[in-house]
Specification:
Elements (H helix, E strand, L loop, with lengths): L1 H34 L3 H18 L5 E5 L1 H9 L10 E4 L4 E4 L7 E4 L4 E9 L6 E8 L4
Length: about 140
């Protein structure tokens, strides 16, 4: 009977290791899938660049950016709406969020005490552009 208990114990420990291995492999495939089209890299790039622009802007500045690459990646990754889902500005938290793939958005905070209003993504020829206006803080 002792041999049966040893076999059951060994089998149980192997099953636990196999389950942990399966979780690890699934996690690695999810990470590789997300990195395969560089969506995360481009999210970080656009988030940081827009944050730098907002930090250097003065109230009243109007900004127009070429976002052709970002919109191409978002289309390839089936993001729901290019006009409303890709580029978001959270004025309450002074945060820029960009989402180029299904899942989480990449967010970055800016330090300038301003609000971003009138965000508009214009899809056109020859390129897609993001327009927004930087204004004095609207809330107290």
């Amino acid at each position: 009977m002792n041999k049966k208990a040893q076999i059951a114990e060994t089998l149980m420990s192997n099953v636990i290791y196999l389950i942990l291995l399966a979780i690890f492999v699934v996690g690695m495939f999810a990470f590789i899938w997300q990195q395969s089209n560089n969506a995360a890299v481009w999210e970080e790039y656009y988030t940081k660049e827009i944050t730098k622009i907002i930090d250097l802007a003065k109230p009243g500045d109007k900004v127009t950016l070429d976002v052709q690459k970002a919109t191409e990646i978002a289309l390839k990754n089936n993001v729901a709406s290019l006009k409303s889902d890709v580029f978001n500005f959270n004025n309450a938290n002074n945060e820029v969020c960009i989402k180029l793939s299904q899942g989480r958005a990449s967010c970055y905070k800016y330090f300038n005490d301003v609000d971003v209003i009138d965000r508009d993504v214009q899809l056109g020829i020859p390129e897609n552009v993001l327009n927004f206006k930087v204004v004095k803080k609207l809330r107290s």
